[in-house]
Amino acid sequence: MSGSLPLFFYVLWSQTSMNLLLAASGEKHTPLGHVLDKELLDVGIIGTVSMQLVTMIVGTIILLLLMPAVARRISTGSSAEGNERYITKGRLSQIVEVICLYLRDTMLVPVMGEKDTRRYFPFLMSLFFFILTMNLFGLVPLPDIQNIIFKFTAGNDHLAYIGGTPTSNINITVALALVSFVVIQIHSFRELGVLGFLEHMTCGLTKGPKFLWLIVPVIFVVELAGLFIKPGALAIRLFANMVGGHVLLATLLLFGADFYEALPFGGLAAVTAISGFAAVLITFMEVFVAFLQAFIFMFLTAVFISLMSHHDEEHESHESHEAQGEPQVVAQAAH
Amino acid sequence: MDQFLNIIAVASADGKKAPGLMDPNLLANITGIVVFLIALTVLWIFVWPKITQGLDDRNEKILSEIKSAEDAREQAKTALADYERELARAREESSQMINDARAQAKQLADELRAKNEKELAERMARATADIEAAKSAAVSDLHAQAATLATMIAGKILKREITPADEKQLVDESLAELGSRN
């Protein structure tokens, strides 16, 4: 509770500073203008080095610096420490531990079973924390701070080298979905074999009555499309949610800029205060969305992996779903 | 849709150079994959084994503690049952002992009373016999004295000296007569 008040004022300050900056510029802005990536270096046909790409690399470095320290604190020390070794020290470590424990025991094991959860836990958790870091990075107003700095130093209030949400870049979410796709396919071939994979792709109709062979090509095409649509949906869902949240934030903050010329100072201050306060509330919701979208991406990848497991394991997981309730609903939604 | 695309176009024109929202960027794709794979490798080697081990250790510790607590509770329940059983047995034994002691005391008292009564009866009988014997002796003695006295009186009356042999004969006759009367 004691930490939430400074956080509130930090968010209020950051959002208001963005708002005032936009209002002071007096230019016509669009909500998307604030969300879009910024090109830093054009490398020809390969593409461009952009602000969000730099953010992703920096975010990854921070993640890789933090997580080993967190892991050291979560791991149990030597037996000489007695019962103290079972206590996780540090808030970040405790949060990471709780998240890992909850996701593993409550969400993944009922869907994937004990064996597959152990096998894919490192991949799925890496995916989750990678996306979470990227999502949360987008909530830090780094581009706006740079805009303020460069406005007074270089006279350019559009300059920014780092910031933004890497997961609001479709190219990056596609990259992550591609990794998920590969892992899902490796798992399916490993579990089912080539013949089993083909049987799965035809929903087992080849073993049924002969007349069902007529619809086998149709089923195969649909299943084949499904292989790509599932990870594609993952990429688009994450991208759209991240863009949507930030567009909403920018829209709220742009009210001040929109009324800059039309309203006197008092009216402008009122609009700024109201829109700033609303943006603060939306920012808190964005924190939740950052966690939620990271979870959904990771969890649906787990569901897609489990769908490609043996039928007996599927049966086992379905029984577990019934016991769990909620994961079953999500698994069915993934179908 | 057109309006959306216009916004994107305006946004692209805004600022230094903003790529479109859906513009493909192969470099971003490749970088995304490479960066994630590097992160995955590092986390897989240095982070997740430790975290998994930590979670498992805690899980094991909690389960073992719960099991120990359950065992201790079972032991305590067994000990309590044993104690209560022992207590009940001790109570029963003590009760039995008290009853036995009471019975023994009663029996002893009865025996003592019977013995005393018997002794008393015997003493009374003996005393009665002694009294009877003393009475008989006294009566005999009295008879002898009376006979002697009567003989002496009779001798005086008859002026005749009675010899001790006569006296003895008279006494014996008197006693025999007295005995026949009794």
Q: In sequence order, what are the helices and strands of chain B, one letter per element?
A: HHH
Would you report the number of β strands of chain A?
2
Distance between the termini of chain B: 162 Å
Biggest sheet descriptor of chain B: none
Runs of chain B with pLDDT <50, length 5+? 1-16
The pLDDT mean of chain A sits at 82
Structure write-up:
The complex is a heterodimer of chains A (335) and B (182). With 335 residues, chain A is mainly α. Chain A has one domain (4-75, 89-334). Chain A has ten helices and two strands, in the order ααββαααααααα. Chain A has helices spanning 4-25, 31-35, 51-74, 91-137, 142-153, 170-201, 216-258, 265-307, 311-324, 326-334, and strands at 39-42, 48-50. Chain A has a two-stranded antiparallel ribbon with strand order 1-2. In chain A, strand 1 and strand 2 (48-50) form a beta hairpin. In chain A, helix 3 packs antiparallel against helix 4 (91-137). Chain A is globular, with a radius of gyration of 24 Å. Chain A starts with a helix and ends with a helix. The model of chain A is unreliable at 313-335 (pLDDT under 50). With 182 residues, chain B is an all-alpha fold. Chain B has one domain. Helix content of chain B is 90%, strand content 0%. In chain B, helix 2 (26-158) packs across helix 3 (164-181). The longest helix of chain B is centred in the middle third of the chain and has 133 residues, at 26-158. Chain B is rod-shaped. The chains are: A mainly alpha (335), B mainly alpha (182). At the A-B interface, helix 2, strand 2, helix 3, helix 4 and helix 6 of A face helix 1 and helix 2 of B.
Q: How is this structure best summarized?
A:
The complex is a heterodimer of chains A (335) and B (182). By secondary structure, chain A is mainly α. Chain A has helices spanning 4-25, 31-35, 51-74, 91-137, 142-153, 170-201, 216-258, 265-307, 311-324, 326-334; strands at 39-42, 48-50.
From the structure above, extract its key features:
heterodimer; A: mainly alpha; 10 helices; 2 strands; 2% strand; B: 182 residues; mainly alpha; 90% helix; 0% strand; disordered N terminus
